[in-house]
Structures are given as structure tokens and as C-alpha cells.
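Q&A log
Question type: sequence-to-structure
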Amino acid sequence: MIKFFRNMFGSKTSGADASAPAAGPVLNESQPAVQWLEKDDPKNPFTVNGYDCLAFVRSMLSTTQDPAVATSFSTLRASLGQEHIGLVPSGAVALECRLEYPFDGETTDGVLFHASRMEEKWDIYLYADRIYFCRSWTGALTFLAHFTTTSSALVIHQILATSSGPGMDYRYVVRQVDYLVRSHILKQAHPHPLPAGLERDPASVGLYSFSQYGWLCCFGTFDDTLRRDIRKPQADD
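Response status: OK
Response body:
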């Protein structure tokens, strides 16, 4: 398990450049396999069943034939996210929730996370009492989280997200936002949620995971990712 976390936070595969024209996944000839791990498997650092896709996503690159995609990504690297202030996701629905995170008592407006290469899929900004989650290639505002703070906690109490129709899985959206906070902002190794309708085979999971989170995901699961005991105790904890 220690090796898993070392790989998660160690150096990433080189070869991709933030200025390169890229947008779609490219499979390498010697693609590492996505591995199914039971929760009791010693190689699984988490307390849920799921798919270890760390090596797979880190081996992926993004390419495109559309120069506009690369131009959009490159231009957005200079954005501070101020263009999103006062906006909500298209066709937004409001989801009530309670996601709580440790907090040191102070927030600063601006960038919380910026993709440094096209294999990273999100840009995240904070202004006032809102967190804006945007796709790094297009700048599309996907989630908007409203939060309050105390002296020791930041609490997201409402999420605005683009409606996907009558069958929208609200709990999955909440898990997505929680994952983005933990992985991209707090820099935690944390399982990423998989939608219930996704085909349950390693290849589908790997490609979906890369398309959603790029190099910043490590382990996909259909189980609840909001539980507090999701990470197994480590020797250095």
C-alpha cells in the first residue's frame, strides 16, 4: 500500500506538454492494465472494492486534430476564473448536501487548482462563498458549490450542477464534488466515484476515469466514497 501512495504522489509520466495540441486519449502499445481489487486485497489501500487505474491513467496522453481545443486550453491557463463570478452551470439543479473539510479559518479568492497539462481535466476557483469547478479544456462551468466556514471547518451545503434529465443521480454528483475537493484541492489519494450505469469492466472504467479526471485519479469504485473510513490505516498515519 505504501508503494501505491508513493506512486500516486510521485513524479508523473513525462511527454505531455501544456502547449501541445491535445484533447483525446491515446493508448500506448504497452498499456498497463486496470486491475480489479477486492477491499481485503493487501494491495488495495482503501476499504472499498474497486479498480486500480493509477498506472493506466498515468500512461495515457491526450491528442487532437482540432487546433481550437489546444488554443482554448492554452488561453485558459491565464484565467483567474473571474469570468464565472455570478454564473451557474447551464440548466442547473440545486442539490442539498453536507460535505465537511478541515479549515484553518481563512479563504483567499482566486485559483484553487489549475491544470498544468491537458491530461489534467479541471480548473477550480474560489470567490466569496462559492467554489467553481470548470473543465480545463473548454472552461465550461460544471459544478458550483456554496459553502460556509467555521474556525475549523469548511462546509459545502449546496451544489449546483447541470441537469442530466429525470434519471439524474444526485448522490453521484455530490461524490464527484467531494472527490474533486479531496484530490485536486486537498491533494489526498482518494477513490473516485463511478456512475452506476458505467459498464463494469476494467477497460471501460479506465477510459472513463481518464476522461473525467486524467492523471489525478488512482482508484475507481462504485461504492460510497463519502465514508470517513475509506482509507486503510497506514504505518506512518
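Response note: Residues 1-23 have pLDDT under 50 and may be disordered.
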